[in-house]
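Tip: read the tokens left to right.
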């Protein structure tokens, strides 16, 4: 095979197919025949929106191949990696797991698909791992109260994982179809903040003490959203808020030091955790478990 079909985002924000040379299969990589890929409505579709808003396109703009979450079967493995073999069904993630009929993916960016799980579900692995990293950062515990702000794919999965950790979760979202999807996924407490007072309902939900943790799973200006979430967090007798807030979306707001923020932990959650974008790790090395428990 000397060529493959790939999806590109054009300079003016359209999605088209192109024929390109097959990428080089390097040591520590596997050639994957793709069966399903997942589009990220945040990272990837925002790229489309931004390009469509630029009229005319900048003179230096170029089309680019996109995608980072896929599933398929291994055709060939380059190197000695016994856990991977031709014919194995795998989930693939990272910048090489593109929207293409074939991709060459580093071996530590691959995970065998268990049982008869469909490819269409397995290709959620990358965004699933992103959600999981945010929950590891937020550290929900059995019986705690938490809020997830934003019910896109990552927020939905983060809310499910928080509930699986034994926490009681309230979710905030402005789109009804996302709320309907979340409820079908078992997230029972959801509020549409465009029509109801999410802060008041969350305070009642987490009464009498307040939230233990929050996850902010959306992008853009989050000043008002964070202020509302902040007022829902636990309030100690000395007047200081406390708890943990993990930021998994690309949202922005001002962080105040000292008494202005109380004893609240604001935690950035980067992608899928340690290893992602570390070339040595992606191509076969690992981190010592003593330093990094989860990659």
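Filled-in amino acids:
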């Amino acid at each position: 095979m000397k060529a493959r079909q790939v999806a590109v985002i054009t300079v003016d924000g359209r999605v088209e197919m192109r024929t390109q040379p097959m990428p080089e299969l390097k040591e520590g990589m596997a050639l994957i025949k793709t069966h399903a890929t997942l589009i990220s409505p945040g990272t990837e579709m925002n790229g489309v929106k931004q390009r469509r808003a630029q009229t005319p396109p900048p003179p230096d703009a170029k089309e680019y191949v996109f995608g980072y979450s896929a599933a398929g079967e291994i055709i060939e493995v380059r190197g000695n990696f016994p856990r991977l073999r031709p014919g194995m069904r795998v989930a693939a993630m990272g910048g090489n797991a593109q929207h293409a009929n074939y991709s060459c993916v580093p071996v530590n960016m691959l995970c065998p698909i268990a049982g008869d799980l469909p490819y269409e579900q397995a290709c959620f692995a990358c965004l699933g791992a992103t959600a999981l990293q945010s929950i590891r950062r937020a550290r929900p515990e059995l019986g705690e109260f938490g809020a997830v702000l934003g019910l896109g794919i990552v927020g939905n999965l983060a809310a499910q994982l928080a509930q699986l950790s034994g926490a009681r979760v309230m979710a905030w979202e402005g789109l009804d179809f996302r709320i309907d999807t979340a409820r079908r996924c078992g997230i029972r407490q959801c509020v549409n903040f465009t029509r109801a007072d999410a802060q008041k309902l969350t305070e009642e939900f987490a009464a009498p003490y307040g939230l233990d943790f929050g996850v902010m799973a959306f992008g853009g200006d989050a000043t008002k959203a964070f202020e509302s979430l902040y007022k829902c967090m636990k309030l100690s007798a000395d007047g200081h808020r406390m708890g943990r807030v993990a930021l998994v979306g690309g949202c922005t707001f001002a962080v105040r030091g000292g008494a202005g923020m109380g004893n609240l932990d604001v935690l950035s959650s980067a992608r899928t955790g340690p290893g992602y974008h570390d070339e040595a790790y992606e191509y076969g090395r690992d981190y010592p478990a003593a330093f990094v428990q989860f990659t």
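The first strand starts at residue 3 and ends at 9. Residues 125-138 form the longest helix (14 residues).
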